[in-house]
Request: fold
Amino acid sequence: MTKGRDLKPHIGIFGRRNNGKSSLINALTGQETAIVSDVPGTTTDPVRKSIEIAGIGPVVVIDTAGIDDTGELGQKRILRSRDMLKLIDLAILVVAENLFDEPEKGLIADFRKQDVPFIVVHNKSDIQPAEPDLLNVIRERYSVPVIGFSAKYPSNLEELIRALQESMPETVYRKQPLVGDLISQGDVVLLITPIDIEAPEGRMILPQVQVIRDVLDHDGVVVICKEREVDAFIKKMDPKPALVITDSQVFPKADAAVPKNIPLTSFSIVLARQKGDFDNYLWGTPFISKLKNGDSILILESCSHHVSCDDIGRIKIPRWLSSFTGKKLEFTTVAGLDRIPGEMTDYAMVIQCGSCMITRKQLINRLKPAVDAGIPVTNYGMVIAYVHGIFNRAIEPFHAGGEVDYL
Reply:
C-alpha cells in the first residue's frame, strides 16, 4: 500500500476506466500533472501527487485505477483503490456517458462506511452532456454536489473548486494545539532532546520541531537541552518551566531530574493527544500488566526508516515489555501503512508510534480494526512511561482526573 507521509489534505479520485480521472487532475492543476491516454486502464495502481489547487492550497491527490477493472489482476487493482479510502479526507467520484450503476453505488457505500465526504463529477460533458434527470437523482439520493464538467474544456472549473472547498471536512484544517492550550503567554517550556544515533545529523526530529513551533505560536518561550544537562540546568532555571517535554527514551532520567510539582510528559504523548486515539490509548495502556506468555504484540510505525542497533520500536520497546511483564512475547512490526499480517484478533495489543508522518484520519483508520475488535491500543510514549512506572505522571498534564486504572 502507498505509505502516508504527507500531512496535507488528501483527495482521492475514483471512477471507471477511461472516465477521465487523470484528465480531471490536470484540469484542477492547470498543467499536465497526470499521464492521460485514450487507452482504458492507463492508471494501474494508486498514484499520489502533491499539487496546488487554487482556492484550496497544497493537497495530495490520489489517482486510482478504474473500479470496473477486469481479471484477477484487475480485482487486485480495485482492492488497492478501495484501500485508499483509509487515507483520504475527500473523494471525487468521476462518472461519464451518463453511466451510474452498481460500481458507482458500491463505491458510494464504501465512502459512507469509511465516513468519507464526496462529490460527483460527470466528466466528458463536451462529448456527451450529463442528463439533468441523472444529476438530480444523484443529488436527491445522496445529498452531495453533482457537477457536469469537461476536463478538456473546463469552463466551470470555479464551480468544481467551490464544491471541493465546501465539501472538505473542517477537521482537516482545524488542528488541536500540541501544548498551546496548556501554557500561558510567557511560560517557559523545557524540551529534553537526546542527540543519539537515531537523531538526524544537523537537524531536529519532526516532533521536536512541531512542539517548538506550537509553543512559539502561543507566545511561550522554548528552552532546549540534552538529557545530560537536565539536573544542573533545571535547578538554576528561574522562572521554573511550566511544562517539561522529554524524548520517551530518557523518560526515567527526566522523571528523576524534574521536580514532581512541574508537569512532565513526552513528545510521543503530546502527538498522541493531538491526532491519536487518546481515550483508547488511556484505556489500552494498562493492559500491559495483563499480557501472557505467547501473546503477540503488533507494533505500527508510521514511516520507513533506517533501523539502528538500538531502535526504539524494534529493539527497546520489545526489550522493556519483556522485562516488565516477565513473559515471553512475540512482536510483529509493520512500517508505513503496509498491510497487517494475519487477522487483527491474532494480536493481544497494538502499539502505535508517535505518528508524526501521517494524518489523524489515516491514524484513526489504521487503529480502527483493533478498536472495533476490542484489542487494546497504545503508543510508544505511553508504553515507555508505563513500564518505567511514570504513566500517570506523563498523562497528568492532559488528564487532570488523576490516576488511570481501568483494570
The two ends are 36 Å apart (CA to CA).
